[in-house]
Amino acid sequence: MSSDAAPIRILSVDDHALIRQGIAGLLAVQTDMTLVAEASNGREAIQQFRLHRPDITLMDLHHESHTDQCRRAFDKLWLDGYSLLPLPEEREPL
Fold first, then answer.
1. d(C-alpha 49, C-alpha 38), whole Å
2. Angle at the Cα of 87 (from 85 to 89), degrees rounded to 5?
3. Is the whole-model pTM more than 0.85?
4. Is 40 within the bounds of a domain?
């Protein structure tokens, strides 16, 4: 990153504090990224997004209340997220 470029501003949304802490730790050592806010649910995500206007929001897409609330709050929303769990079609049979 050039010295005059602003860091990428990130909002982290996950209902698990340990995941949010891990993301915060990873971002803390990045010079071109900064964590501007965290949220544990969709309602908090909307509040934090409106307050901080991040460049990127990392959101757990397996928690449907996150995505449903955010879709209702914003007319145009592009979701590209992560999940630590496999999709149902990718799960191994028991």
1. 9
2. 140
3. no
4. yes
pLDDT tens across the length of the chain (94 residues): 556 789 999 999 888 899 999 999 999 999 999 999 999 988 898 899 889 999 888 887 766 666 666 767 666 655 555 555 555 555 455 4
CATH code for position 40: 3.40.50.2300
> Is residue 81 packed enough to be buried (19+ CB in 10 Å), middle (13-18) or exposed (0-12)?
middle
Q: Is residue 13 assigned to a domain?
A: yes
Residues forming a β-bridge with 9: 34
Total domains present in the chain: 1
Segments forming the whole domain that contains residue 35: 8-90
- Angle at the Cα of 92 (from 94 to 86), degrees rounded to 5? 125
Element (H or E) spanning 23, and its range? helix 17-28
